[in-house]
Amino acid sequence: MARSLLTLAAVAGLLPATFLPAGATSWPVFGFDPARSGFNTAEHRLTVGNVHRLHERWQVSLGADADSTPILLDHIRVGRVEMPMLFQTTKSGVTLGIDARNGKIVWQFITHGSTVTNSTPAADPSGKSIYVPGIDGKVHKVSAAKGREERAPGFPARITRLPLSEKDASPLNVANGYLYAVTSGYYGDAPPYDGHVVAVELSTGKTTVFNSLCSTYRKLVKANTCSQQRSGIWGRGGAVVDPDSSMNGRIYASTGNGQFDAGSGGDNYGDSLLSLGEDLSSLLGSYTPTDYQQLENGDTDLGSSSPGVLPDQASSQTPYMIVQGGKDAILRLLNRAALPGLGGELQEVDLPGGLFSAPAIWTNGSNNTFIFLGFSNEVVSYQVQTNSSGVSQLASVWQASPGSSSGEGSSPVVANGIVFVAFDEALVALDAVTGKELWSSALSSAHGNIGSIHWQSPIVVNGSVYCSDESGNLTAYSLR
Questions:
Q1: Are 456 and 67 in contact (CB under 8 A)?
Q2: Which domain, by its residues, includes 332?
Q3: Residue 133 sits in a domain of what CATH number?
Q4: Residue 387: inside a domain, yes or no?
Q5: What is the mean pLDDT of each run of 10 residues along the chain (480 residues)?
Q6: I need a surface site. Which of 8, 197, 234, 316 has the fewest CB within 10 A?
Q7: Would 179 be classed as within a structural domain?
Q8: Which long-range contacts (CB under 8 A, 24 or more apart) does 187-192 make?
Q9: Predicted model pTM
Q10: Residue 19 falls inside a structural domain
């Protein structure tokens, strides 16, 4: 059972309402949008010329490690006060509502269980409610203003019947009138678990399930439902939604190591990229590397990273493309309009190491598309280039090493030509075109800089940058 706590000090309006810039926007899901692009198209206050003026505004203890990323809704009315609010879930299953102006904790929503989550909340389209991950095997609908559970069709929504061995690791997503959640195993890959995608229709509460193993079984699995185990879906982006209207809201999810036999008449999709209809009722296509058995034997998950959806490349023979990295340090360029099945990549690119972060996808003012990838000690950039014959390829642009971390790499985000990425004790801003370092929190903070990071990554919204860390803190930076 969950409960909420309201602290009155946080809602007393300690800062004026003018803190919010004109035309303020929200960061409603991990990656800014359901496609998980990591590109805030609405950010104009921070620029390449002024980002060096960022300084720490506040830091708050979350009470526990939040190995995830916050979201932000810009106009939440709490009593008589309207404020921008951040929402973040700790590993212990506690979601906090935080006044983004001053870091004061407004409420806590607590779920109970003996496990952990690395998931991130997602906002309801109304902007008045959020969906929060629990450690009880469920997703809860909660009032954004008060942190109280809201009863709605299908909620709280059960996303696993095996909460002690199936983990809600990836961020939640909301699009197409559905909530999307995915599952994986816990550290150590102890079965029973089966990576699956769950869709909950927001208007009716109807739940649909697609299991990556024994995929013809369309319900939540129990311990002995499937003869095969694992194939977890745990990449940072989780369920990724195609933003192009011609794709009718299709969903992409990449799986970890597990049996693959779908190419020979089976129904198991380990180490695969799946394309699903918006309600999960249909499998529209899949991609699996030809060395899938080697990936399975070596615990070399294809799904260590989530897919990155590229904008329409009008001059290309394959205008609708997607990229997929993995633990094997290969980035694959694929035709997402018709995923090729076994093999059939458009291109394979060698990476500096295994990819554990979500790619950021940026389109500049000249309509050129760039991809940014974060690793434990570097950030790399690629540009999508199409030749006169309509053949598209990824070309390396720059590689920067502005910091390092003991974790697996932070997911970059992009805003107004600036790439933001987190390392241990340093949040860094890079020029998206050149990779030049523009700012580092390690040089601008007299105290209270971020600590070490694992899967934590920043968000950039309304001229401010927010990032949590392994020390259980959430830190905000803004312009002087």
A1: yes
A2: 3-13+24-479
A3: 2.140.10.10
A4: yes
A5: 37 36 85 98 97 96 97 95 97 98 98 96 97 98 98 97 96 98 93 96 98 97 92 97 97 97 96 98 98 96 98 97 98 98 98 98 96 98 98 98 94 98 97 98 77 97 98 95
A6: 8
A7: yes
A8: 189/230, 189/232, 189/299, 190/165, 191/165, 191/229, 191/230, 192/162, 192/165, 192/166, 192/221, 192/223, 192/224, 192/229
A9: 0.94
A10: no
